[in-house]
Design goal:
alpha/beta, 352 residues, globular, 7-stranded mixed sheet, homotetramer
Chain lengths: 352, 352, 352, 352
């Protein structure tokens, strides 16, 4: 497999062959509908093993669904959800969290490299609490691990954000659309950067990592999970043939495919970053998972696109015609894909 | 393939082999995300051909999603959605339509065999209009074709319901989770029982008919479709790898698989009904698609279940211990499955 | 004061002179905004005295607001709220409860004279629970005391409805828009027909009873009250000059004005009913508070209206041209108003 | 009348005597309920005269209600509402606009003195449009006239903001809680700073200006107004005795009371600002209506409060112990109240 010149997103990649095999294997005869099947039951077991404690799992099709369901279980309609200003829930989900929570408001927080700074969290919470019922009250902190900027939170950084929020009675959500990439990079246990760090509910991603479309809402707290199935159902996210979601998630966990895929993607981004260093180009943010952000001139970006490469503009182009661009690798990216891009960058006069 | 003793639901059936083949075929290299892929573009073309006019298509995972998105495009938050008292949107979707419409209210209407009677529609609308802003105003009529009772609306019956509703300015939704079964039975064109009958927006089902999970919201009116993608997105129903939904829907339309599957399911229900007649048992409602409703004694139902058969209780058991039970066939049901059930019914003393 | 020929509603009556005096008295100098004033603090005290226990009070302008806030505190978005099919929350509030609860569904229940029958409550709850997450789950029972049909629940009847609902974990709301009329009629303590009967949260009406516009949400359970102020605020129901609502409610409680007004209204309805008996006309439902429902021919209703009388049609006119009409008295209705109506009825050939 | 040492808010002031007289005058006999009364009809006429064109008016109790209803008529659930980062709708209404619109998102914009800068409006809109259905789409621009910082928009400034927004198809809302103060200051016609400047729907404030509680949603576009009554009703904001809101608004318009009151409030703020200049203190923002913002040391603020003065902290106190404080005058503030405050400030060593 190879992704050629497409660095637009890890969601553009095809499904991993073992995922398709799992779909085929799950297609054996009739099975109970709406999650009463054995794949879905098994998923709870496997996830519990993975995290070293009992967890409650709810498979869904999309990350937006996972995030919205997770957040709606931990915030009232008048709750404030604090997140990074580049968080997917804020800028790429068209209000999914607001819809399912019935009105919670997302409060954007700044922070370099996609990581929230602790100081503004406290300042914002203090302001909201001081204003009482006149505005939303701090309810949830949503952290993205790995971040939208291709970085990760060190476990200590997570704890530094989470501890004061929990002390305020807030609940912690983690958007783990790229959790696998973060765990692969950290080399820690899955629990270390989630439940052990104080996360209450996790959006466990698989789609960007090789599924055709499958994510799981994972609760580390059974009481919070009680409302989940109702929220999932009314949002249209309980498929009758749920086995086809659960089977994909099981395949991901089987023999460590999720980490194997993530490592492959991370490695290709690392290869890209190393090659860039040789050309003398520095990524905008530290390359820690499978995303590389580059500052390019408008002209260079155009030349790369003309040569067939695909990648996204990230934020508005500056007045000088220089902008930030995102290149994403996936489990399916191959070394030759990266080398081809490096070759093109080398000859593209990136800043002219 | 065979479904053995499982008559619980057509959603319990596995996916059709040609659906899995389509998934595998769609897994070729990278493809643009979020519906910008060629399968999704092709789907609009194929559906337009199918209905003989330009249509606008939005693939989603579940029928609940399709119904909620469809209804939310045709009703304001203070709109009344009229539907049968057994409609899936009313009794099996946990408020999906209310959620996505922001507050529309479903008004249940009676009618034998799952079909709405025209008279109460007018009476209800007149009452709502007379009460003005004090309550919801008539906005949408939602019809299920084939119905939840295993029957179909004759095209003339549809028109008799739709014409006065349209004259009031209402919009028409059709829940076509089993549209294929209805079209197969009617022997009409797909347009005849939808767009030509006055339907504005259709939930086109494929999951019950052999997909792993794929439905399409189909608009016959482009203006109504404009809001759909936003509603779909905020509900978390725009998968990044949408090609895997679209490819299933394309496979369904390819070489008439959707009608072939539906006909197979209908035929098995017909076989069951014919066999029942021989035993002297009459289904509760006319068997017109792939569902058979039987009146059984509690004892008989228990004996069948003890023998391994699966089927649902339909409504509360009466005081006399006699209740209504639903048996559903699917494309995967085989003649021997039906005959086995008939054999068991014959010896089960159904009313004792 | 007199209401002349207007029997349309107790909301058509002017404010009681003592209410206006209270407004004037409350207009002394500056006062803290948004409920931090001494009238609002005093209201909690007076209501606590009235009900013989600590209660939590939230003044609002309208009954719709009171009902929506009350219900939103006791039902999740996927909760079922059971109410009479003639309940104000169902037919006259345009979805206020659905809006503020974020999607709870109102389930109408039949019952003669505006009173819910116990049997269908259990049947409905059992059905909803059996269907699990596929539909709304029993969350609240909403009772109207006095009812929309001009009757009251006997305290034993209330308990018969409330006990099994509470046993299911449901919460109990009482729409007391005409609570004063019911208490006046029952001759019981205010607590007897509310908190002592198992009610969790009460909409305490004053507008129909002589305020310019003031109601209170009264919680008998402090834990439930915690969310109320946020729901009230986001619905725009925390006025900056709240003292003008609280002062009206205080005036109502002062020296028993609320019962005095209600008794006056009830007495006039009684006078009307007694007069009808003399003419040989029987009200459709027992006249227990301040509403009289009469069966009249269309012609008679027209003749009364031509003579200047105002009253509402109640439900659709039957095919025979005979319909049900509602006549409401208020604290401001005088004996001569009633006698004038009786005179007109006597000569109007009510059924011809 | 006098407000003594209370500069906390214009909402702390009592009602104007002419407002109470109007309430008493409106209390004559029965009147039709829910806005069918003659006061409400007359209000539409008077407001139409005031603005020199037909307008559609909806009286409500609170500014939060007016803003939420107004915004909900001009934005879909996936619409972006752009407003100043200090806008009341954003920071003081607990999500009212989100609730009633069913999910619109408020996007805060910076700008000195409470006035939005034009440049970021365009940048934000361009970004939202570029991201398509992945996020909210520009729907409404909400402007506050006079602003939360005690300033006003010059009419040319309004047009500079409004023209490009309208060119994008956005609708314009004006929060006119202090419109009277702005019009009094501008010396323009009411239409000049609203309809003629391109405003579609206005929240016309009266509460801060001397009502007990009354605001009006005023539409300059009849088509937009059609949905308003339904939104108003479902939010519980159609009082049965609406005459008591409408009568207050009529009294405000009668003989120019609204401008007379606003001028009185503005004059007292001017007196305060002039006195501050004499002491050598400069307000933080230009004093253009009835609010004065002062930079004070924590110690000075404490000393003033110890002396009985009331005023709000505005934003968090800086690290140096110096903060911003708001002093508001109202129609009821008298010269001696201001002089008393000036005397205290003179002796309070404001920055020590």
């Amino acid at each position: 497999m190879a992704t050629g010149k497409d660095f637009s997103s890890d969601t553009a990649a095809p499904a991993h062959p073992r995922i398709l095999e799992a779909l085929i294997a799950a297609n054996e005869g009739n099975a109970p509908s709406y999650g009463d099947d054995r794949w879905t039951a098994r998923l709870k077991e496997c996830m519990s093993e993975l995290f070293g404690r009992e967890v409650w799992t709810f498979p869904v099709l999309t990350g937006t669904a996972a995030n919205a369901i997770a957040l709606a279980t931990i915030t009232p309609p008048y709750g404030a959800v604090l997140c990074h200003e580049a968080a997917h829930i804020l800028v790429d989900e068209c209000g999914g969290a607001e819809l399912l929570s019935g009105g919670a408001r997302l409060y954007p927080l700044a922070g370099a490299g996609g990581r929230i700074d602790p100081a503004p969290v406290e300042a914002l919470c203090a302001r909201l609490v001081a204003n009482g019922f006149h505005n939303h009250q701090p309810a949830a902190l949503s952290l993205t691990q790995g971040t939208e900027s291709g970085t990760i939170y060190a476990i200590e950084d997570l704890k530094r954000l989470i501890a004061p929020a929990r002390a305020r009675g807030m609940r912690i959500h983690m958007d783990g659309a790229r959790l696998a990439n973060a765990v692969a990079r950290l080399g820690c246990s899955p629990a270390a950067t989630t439940a052990d760090a104080g996360v209450d509910v996790l959006s466990f991603g698989a789609t960007k990592n090789g599924a055709t479309g499958a994510e799981a809402v994972v609760f580390f707290n059974g009481a919070l999970a009680e409302r989940a199935i109702f929220l999932q159902k009314r949002a249209g996210h309980v498929p009758s043939k749920m086995r086809f979601l659960s089977a994909q998630l099981l395949a991901m966990l089987d023999a460590g495919l999720w980490l194997e895929s993530a490592r492959a993607a991370n490695d290709m981004a690392r290869r890209l970053a190393d090659g860039l260093a040789e050309i003398g180009l520095a990524p905008h943010w530290s390359v820690e998972i499978n995303e590389v952000f580059l500052t390019l001139s408008r002209g260079a970006a155009g030349r790369l696109r003309a040569a067939g490469f695909q990648f996204l503009s990230w934020g508005p182009e500056g007045e000088t015609g220089v902008g930030l661009y995102r290149f994403v690798t996936s489990y399916a990216t191959e070394a030759r894909d990266v080398d081809q891009l490096l070759g093109a960058l080398r000859s593209a006069s990136p800043l002219e």
